[in-house]
Each structure stands twice: as structure tokens, then as C-alpha cells.
């Protein structure tokens, strides 16, 4: 059997122990330099010889049935009473790996005070760039690295340096891009499992295990030395000391924090833990800021919607609607043209394709895009559906179907121009013959990207769907008005059209439950009754966890099936006096009348459990929901009640999903 010779860094020592956590099978070559201990005369080295009998028993006890110790342990050698050591222990196959690091004296109170102060700054940040700038400055203060940068990955896994704290010994990387070949799949996956990586000196001679142990894999060891290709890469960057941490977003790896020094640089375990806490707090704050920003944008789009009581009593034609709202819509969606295609005709504003090209475009959309979600591209000239169409002034398109009936759809389509962008690359990407191999970077370069528009953001696609639903109602209202004026004698047709308008005005076309407008009316009515009779009621606001991943992995048709099945399950599980409405996207609201807080929580937990048992054809994962519960309190309005439920739902999201959280009372929330 071939022997495995792992390469280890020398700032800590490593022990390979048997499964019973008693006999030491191998040690790193620096163990005796790091820790003074007496070797037994019989040559049989036991864990108690190194750690002491009491500590070795504790390690053995806490590892029973566990994969790793719940936290680090600290011990002190009697001959070196001024030096403390910290150990981590975990199981690797049939062996136990024990990592030992020295702990140098440091004022924990001062470190705690610094961390608390920086956490307050993170909490006070009001936008993402301020948050990231605060984060890199805090990390640089704690670790002393010369350069601390935040690298954010785009959809192609290219890295952009978006924030930086810089000393005087390394050049700035802010605003530069690194190619995806610098972050191969194997490296990104390792950060998913091991989010913290420290290289004290990339050029230091590595330690090894003695004796070599067959089958010992130390891929998960914090002490593992950098691979030769990683050494070459950091040397080309002029870096000897490196400390990196993963930033996990809500859909995977969002980016990395890189701490670089041109000289060897150590980071003590308490400092590493403090930095990881800062990164985790900053990540949660960043997700919250993004959610708030998206909520504000959606509200701006909703404020531009055309449906109102007046719009229903005095409906306007599609041409009038577009003429009045086009400028606002184009600004909101960063578009230079908009087309409303209704009944085979195009109403256009701004820079749009020719009528012939539009007709062909809509015809292809009708054939290829059969589900209810939006369709978009940022490369019209390369997209299969549009490549052969004559659209010389258009580069991006976002199309939303408007279901006027079961057999007829209108379309709302936004167009964007080409966005020529100059990208500054720190390292020129190189094609590697071997996958997942980090290549040595070459000289910096710049690239001009042409033929693409700005990307359509997820929140923009959601907002376009909301706008499309409102336009569907407005267009239907206008059609019915026209029928009332010109087809009075065809009463049957008029009655069917009015019934269709009533259905559209009060029910969600996909799930067939109440829509946003109808559930809002019911909430307002319940508020009146509550204020008059003090009759308590509750709102349950919930949405489907990881719904975007379902759409991305299985398509919007499966996503639609999830929403329809979920709505049917919840609606059939409610009392006759309770109501269900679709609030928007994957969000739903349950209006629970005559419900105190205990009853509302019980209902929420029952619905959460029922949903977890839901099975969808073509989807092998479990469907879960995060539920925010808000019980009416005196002084509540519809807006404050929904806001409290929304905040509670986001706490359920950030608390791990598939949870129920109860909203704070209004006075506390403020």
C-alpha cells in the first residue's frame, strides 16, 4: 500500500490517533519543537503523553458518537506554564485528527471590545458598499494584514474586487477582476466545507507526518500546507501571508475575503474566530439590506401601477396607458423602449424594433415560452429565439405574458441598448488542459465587452410580473367597457366578460386563491371590526423556501406546480372563516379571524408541517415554508400589520427556514 505524505504548515502540530482516541499513530515533524513531553520507554506513544491524562479523557468522552469536538479545548504544559495550547479534534474515516496550536498572551477583553465596536458599525451600515468597507477595515485592524479585499463572484464565477483596506506594501486590487480559472470548482467546493483558510508563510518548508500512515487524508485539516500551484499563484501576487474566508449568500458562495501580507503573517485562533464572526454578521446584514432595497424598488413599481377604483370606473385604452406610464416604466426598468402587444397590435414608446420584427418576436414567444413567468435575454443577437430578427438598436429584452383569457395572451416587453463595458482584469484568464487547476496568472489587462445589455436583475423580473398582472386587469377593464358601449345587445358576451373581470380582479390567475387586492380588502374589513369590537385576528405571511433554486433547477413550470399545489393544500386546511391570498411571487397571506396568538401559532405550525409533507411530480426535494405571524394590536393598520408579519417571516428565513416566528408588538418594533 502506498504511503500518503501530507504537507503541513508549521504554526501548529498534528496528531493522527486511532479510532478509540488512545494510541497516537503519527505526529507532525514539529511536535517535539512545539510541545515538550516525555516519550514512554516502550515507544508506544499515547494521547495522554502529549495532552495529559485528564484532557485526553475529555477529548475521548466528547468525541464519542460525534464527528468533531463541539469547540476548541485549551491546555497548558507544566514546564511551560506561560504558554497555552488550543486543540481541535475531529474524525477522518477510522482515525481521529488532533490539531494543536499555541495561544500567545493577548488581552481578550480588548479583543472583545474591538469586535463589539466593529459589530456596531456593521449594524449601522445603510448600504452594501458602506458595509463592505467597514468590514475590510475592521478585519485589517484585527489581523494587521497589509491588504484586505472582498471578492464577489458573478454568474460566470469571475471575481470582482468590490472593497479593500490597503496598507503601503502591496498594490491595490480594488475594481479589478480575476478570471474564473483562478477559482476552480474544487476550490469553491472546499470553501463550502472549510470556510476559513490560513497560510502563515507560503514559502515555509512544510512539515510531514512521521511515520507515514496509509489512508490518512488531511484535506479537512486547518494546518494543511498550500498546494504547489497555490504557492506559485500567491508568489506571483507578491503574497507570503494569506488568510481567507468564505462569504455565503442565500443561494451559495457569494464571494471571499482575502487578507494578504508580503511577509509571513500569523493570525491567532481568537482573532480568526473574531474575524469569522464579523464576516457572518456582515453577510446577514448584507442580505437584509438587499432585501430592503428590493422591497423599496418593488414598492416604487407598485406605486406606478395603473389599477385603481378610478381606472375600473373610467378604464383607459392600452395606448393611453402606455402613453401616460411609459416614461416612468422605462426609468424603473432601466430600459430605452417599451412595447405593449395587445390583440395583434403593438403600442410602442421609446426606441423599439420595427412592427415586422415585433410581430415575428411575439409569434416566437407564443410558441416557445408557454409558462407564465417572464422571458429575458441580454444578448438578442446570440439568443436562439431572437438571433435572426432585425433588431439593430436592441441588445436586451424582458417579456412578460399577460393572460387576458385561457386562450389569449398580451405581452409587455422592455428593451435595453448595448452596454459597452470595460473590464479591468488583474490576471488574464488562461485555458487549462486539466480541469480545476489554478494556473499561474499573467500580466494585467483590460477587456471591452460588447454585444450585451445590462443584466436583468431578479427583482426587476419580479416587478415586471407584478406590473403585468395589473396591466392584465386594466386591459380587461377597458375591453369590458368597450363591450358595454358597442355591444350592448350581446348580453351573453357582456356577462361572460364581466365574470372574467371579476375573476381577474379578485383571484390570482395561477393559484385561483384571492389576489393581493382582495386579501387587502378583507384585512381592512377585519381591522374595522377589530377596532369596533376588539375582536382579535392574526396574519400569517409565508413564502416558499429556496423557491428561486426550484425555478432555476427545474424550470418555471415546476415552480408554478409548487405554488398551485401549495395554495390548494393550505386553502383546504383552513377554517371556513379564514382566508388565503397570494401576496405576490411565492408569498401568501392567511387571514385568521377570531384568533389569539396561541391559536395563530398553532395554525402556523400545522400549516408548516402539512407543507413539509407535500410532494410535487418531477421534484424530489421537500417543500418548506417560513411563516411570520402577526396578531392585531390596537393601533395597527393594514400596512403595519403586514410589515410586522413580513419582518417576522424574514427572521424565520434568517433563522434557518422552515420555521415560524411571531412578530414583535408595534411599540417594540419601532
UniProtKB/TrEMBL annotation:
<dbReference type="GO" id="GO:0009881">
    <property type="term" value="F:photoreceptor activity"/>
</dbReference>
<dbReference type="Pfam" id="PF01590">
    <property type="entry name" value="GAF"/>
</dbReference>
<keyword id="KW-0418">Kinase</keyword>
<dbReference type="InterPro" id="IPR013654">
    <property type="entry name" value="PAS_2"/>
</dbReference>
<dbReference type="Pfam" id="PF00990">
    <property type="entry name" value="GGDEF"/>
</dbReference>
<keyword id="KW-0600">Photoreceptor protein</keyword>
<dbReference type="InterPro" id="IPR000160">
    <property type="entry name" value="GGDEF_dom"/>
</dbReference>
<dbReference type="InterPro" id="IPR035965">
    <property type="entry name" value="PAS-like_dom_sf"/>
</dbReference>
<keyword id="KW-0157">Chromophore</keyword>
<dbReference type="InterPro" id="IPR029787">
    <property type="entry name" value="Nucleotide_cyclase"/>
</dbReference>
<feature type="domain" description="Phytochrome chromophore attachment site">
    <location>
        <begin position="127"/>
        <end position="284"/>
    </location>
</feature>
<feature type="domain" description="GGDEF">
    <location>
        <begin position="535"/>
        <end position="665"/>
    </location>
</feature>
<dbReference type="Pfam" id="PF00360">
    <property type="entry name" value="PHY"/>
</dbReference>
<dbReference type="GO" id="GO:0006355">
    <property type="term" value="P:regulation of DNA-templated transcription"/>
</dbReference>
<protein>
    <recommendedName>
        <fullName>diguanylate cyclase</fullName>
        <ecNumber>2.7.7.65</ecNumber>
    </recommendedName>
</protein>
<dbReference type="InterPro" id="IPR029016">
    <property type="entry name" value="GAF-like_dom_sf"/>
</dbReference>
<dbReference type="InterPro" id="IPR050469">
    <property type="entry name" value="Diguanylate_Cyclase"/>
</dbReference>
<dbReference type="GO" id="GO:0009584">
    <property type="term" value="P:detection of visible light"/>
</dbReference>
<dbReference type="Pfam" id="PF08446">
    <property type="entry name" value="PAS_2"/>
</dbReference>
<dbReference type="InterPro" id="IPR016132">
    <property type="entry name" value="Phyto_chromo_attachment"/>
</dbReference>
<dbReference type="InterPro" id="IPR043150">
    <property type="entry name" value="Phytochrome_PHY_sf"/>
</dbReference>
<keyword id="KW-0808">Transferase</keyword>
<dbReference type="GO" id="GO:0052621">
    <property type="term" value="F:diguanylate cyclase activity"/>
</dbReference>
<dbReference type="InterPro" id="IPR043128">
    <property type="entry name" value="Rev_trsase/Diguanyl_cyclase"/>
</dbReference>
<dbReference type="InterPro" id="IPR003018">
    <property type="entry name" value="GAF"/>
</dbReference>
<dbReference type="GO" id="GO:0016301">
    <property type="term" value="F:kinase activity"/>
</dbReference>
<dbReference type="InterPro" id="IPR013515">
    <property type="entry name" value="Phytochrome_cen-reg"/>
</dbReference>
<keyword id="KW-0675">Receptor</keyword>
<keyword id="KW-0716">Sensory transduction</keyword>
Amino acid at each position: 500500500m502506498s504511503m500518503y505524505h501530507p504537507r503541513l504548515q508549521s504554526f501548529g502540530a498534528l496528531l493522527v490517533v486511532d479510532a478509540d482516541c488512545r494510541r497516537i499513530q503519527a505526529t507532525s515533524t514539529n511536535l517535539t519543537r512545539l510541545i515538550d513531553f516525555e516519550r514512554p520507554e516502550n515507544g508506544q506513544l499515547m494521547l495522554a503523553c502529549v495532552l495529559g491524562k485528564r484532557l485526553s479523557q475529555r477529548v475521548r468522552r466528547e468525541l464519542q458518537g460525534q464527528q468533531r469536538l463541539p469547540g476548541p479545548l485549551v491546555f497548558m504544559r507544566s514546564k511551560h506554564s506561560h504558554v497555552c495550547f488550543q486543540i481541535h479534534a475531529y474524525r477522518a474515516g477510522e482515525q481521529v485528527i488532533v490539531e494543536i496550536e499555541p495561544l500567545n498572551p493577548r488581552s481578550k477583553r480588548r479583543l472583545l471590545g474591538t469586535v463589539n465596536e466593529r459589530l456596531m458599525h456593521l449594524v449601522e451600515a445603510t448600504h452594501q458598499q458602506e458595509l463592505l468597507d467597514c468590514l475590510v477595515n475592521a478585519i485589517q485592524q484585527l489581523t494587521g494584514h497589509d491588504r484586505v479585499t472582498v471578492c464577489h463572484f458573478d454568474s460566470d464565477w469571475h471575481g470582482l474586487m468590490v472593497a479593500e483596506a490597503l496598507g503601503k506594501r502591496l498594490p491595490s486590487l480594488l475594481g479589478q477582476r480575476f478570471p474564473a480559472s483562478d477559482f476552480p470548482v474544487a476550490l469553491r467546493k472546499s470553501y463550502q466545507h472549510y470556510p476559513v483558510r490560513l497560510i502563515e508563510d507560503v514559502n515555509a518548508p512544510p512539515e510531514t507526518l512521521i511515520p507515514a500512515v496509509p489512508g490518512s487524508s488531511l484535506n479537512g485539516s486547518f494546518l494543511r500546507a498550500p498546494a504547489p500551484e497555490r504557492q506559485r499563484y500567491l508568489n506571483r501576487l507578491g503574497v507570503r501571508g494569506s488568510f481567507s474566508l468564505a462569504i455565503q449568500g442565500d443561494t451559495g458562495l457569494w464571494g471571499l475575503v482575502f487578507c494578504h501580507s508580503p511577509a509571513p503573517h500569523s493570525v491567532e485562533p481568537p482573532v480568526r474566530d473574531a474575524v469569522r464572526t464579523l464576516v457572518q454578521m456582515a453577510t446577514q446584514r448584507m442580505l437584509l439590506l438587499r432585501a430592503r432595497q428590493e422591497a423599496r424598488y418593488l414598492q416604487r413599481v407598485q406605486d406606478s401601477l395603473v389599477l385603481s377604483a378610478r381606472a375600473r370606473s373610467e378604464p383607459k385604452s392600452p395606448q393611453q396607458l402606455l402613453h401616460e406610464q411609459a416614461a416612468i416604466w422605462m426609468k424603473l426598468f432601466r430600459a430605452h423602449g417599451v412595447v405593449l402587444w395587445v390583440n395583434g397590435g403593438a403600442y410602442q414608446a421609446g426606441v423599439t424594433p420595427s412592427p415586422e420584427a415585433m410581430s415575428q418576436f411575439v409569434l416566437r414567444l407564443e410558441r416557445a415560452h408557454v409558462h407564465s413567468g417572464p422571458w429575458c435575454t441580454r444578448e438578442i443577437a446570440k439568443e436562439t429565439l431572437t438571433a435572426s430578427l432585425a433588431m439593430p438598436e436592441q441588445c436586451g429584452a424582458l417579456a412578460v405574458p399577460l393572460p387576458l383569457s385561457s386562450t389569449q395572451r398580451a405581452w409587455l416587453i422592455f428593451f435595453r441598448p448595448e452596454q459597452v463595458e470595460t473590464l479591468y482584469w488583474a490576471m488574464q484568464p488562461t485555458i487549462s488542459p486539466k480541469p480545476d487547476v489554478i494556473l499561474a496568472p499573467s500580466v494585467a489587462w483590460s477587456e471591452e465587452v460588447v454585444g450585451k445589455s445590462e443584466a436583468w436583475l431578479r427583482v426587476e423580473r419580479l416587478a415586471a410580473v407584478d406590473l403585468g398582472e395589473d396591466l392584465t386587469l386594466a386591459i380587461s377593464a377597458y375591453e369590458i367597457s368597450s363591450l358595454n358601449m358597442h355591444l350592448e345587445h350581446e348580453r351573453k358576451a357582456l356577462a361572460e366578460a364581466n365574470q372574467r373581470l371579476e375573476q381577474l380582479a379578485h383571484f390570482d390567475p395561477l393559484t385561483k386563491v384571492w389576489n393581493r387586492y382582495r386579501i387587502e380588502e378583507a384585512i381592512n374589513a377585519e381591522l374595522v371590526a377589530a377596532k369596533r369590537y376588539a375582536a382579535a385576528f392574526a396574519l400569517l405571511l409565508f413564502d416558499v423556501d429556496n423557491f428561486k433554486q426550484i425555478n432555476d433547477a427545474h424550470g418555471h413550470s415546476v415552480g408554478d406546480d409548487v405554488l398551485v399545489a401549495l395554495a390548494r393544500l393550505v386553502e383546504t386546511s383552513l377554517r371556513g372563516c379564514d382566508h388565503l391570498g397570494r401576496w405576490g411571487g411565492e408569498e401568501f397571506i392567511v387571514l385568521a379571524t377570531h384568533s389569539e396568538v396561541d391559536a395563530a401559532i398553532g395554525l402556523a405550525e400545522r400549516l408548516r408541517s402539512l407543507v413539509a409533507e407535500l410532494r410535487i411530480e418531477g421534484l424530489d426535494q421537500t417543500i418548506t415554508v417560513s411563516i411570520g405571524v402577526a396578531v392585531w394590536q390596537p393601533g395597527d393598520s393594514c400596512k403595519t400589520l403586514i410589515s410586522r408579519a413580513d419582518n417576522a417571516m424574514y427572521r424565520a428565513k434568517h433563522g434557518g427556514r422552515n420555521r415560524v416566528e411571531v412578530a414583535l408588538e408595534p411599540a417594540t418594533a419601532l
